[in-house]
Automatic annotation (TrEMBL):
Pfam families tied to this protein: Acetyltransf_1
Provenance organism: Spinactinospora alkalitolerans
Limits of the N-acetyltransferase domain: 25-177
Transmembrane among keywords: no
Protein name as annotated: GNAT superfamily N-acetyltransferase
Keyword Magnesium: no
Amino acid sequence: MTVGEVRRGADGSGGDPGGGPGGGPAIRAVAVTDPAARPMISDLIAEYTDRYGAEAAREEMAAHPASDFAAPHGAFLLAVARGAAVAGGAFRRFDPRTAELKRIWTAATHRRRGLGRRIVAALEAEAAARGYTRVFLTTGPHQPEAVALYAGLGYRLLETEGTDEAGRRRYYAFDKELGPDPDGA
């Protein structure tokens, strides 16, 4: 399923105005610099600052330029409901067969509704459509909900990556092979 198919919905409908299938948010590709992405970027900075401190947040957000998330090697997706971004995420080229997922976010007022799962699925579909056969991602040790999300979506924890010499977890690294849709779609 590509972004266009996610945007339209499985039944071809566009859902509600400003939303997606069944009244849920529509998922669309935008540039990182698109004004619609500003709330997501601002919330990510605030969340990273709260969990890891201002310096770590600045470093993380500055680590990858906007061009990393542009076609043909990357994508930046937003879930939009009633004209506002409510969830989003991106990927960039990690290596010739691997897309690295970054910036997975859901607005605090829209959590626990499956939007993180929808964004990750849309990112995986778009990455596969661009020829990637594997996805990789990392998340910090202060994001247990993200760890649970990725494990629940079939991501494999890379046990030896992300630990220091004493075996303490500095970050979690996951990967997943992108294969054919088990439903044959």
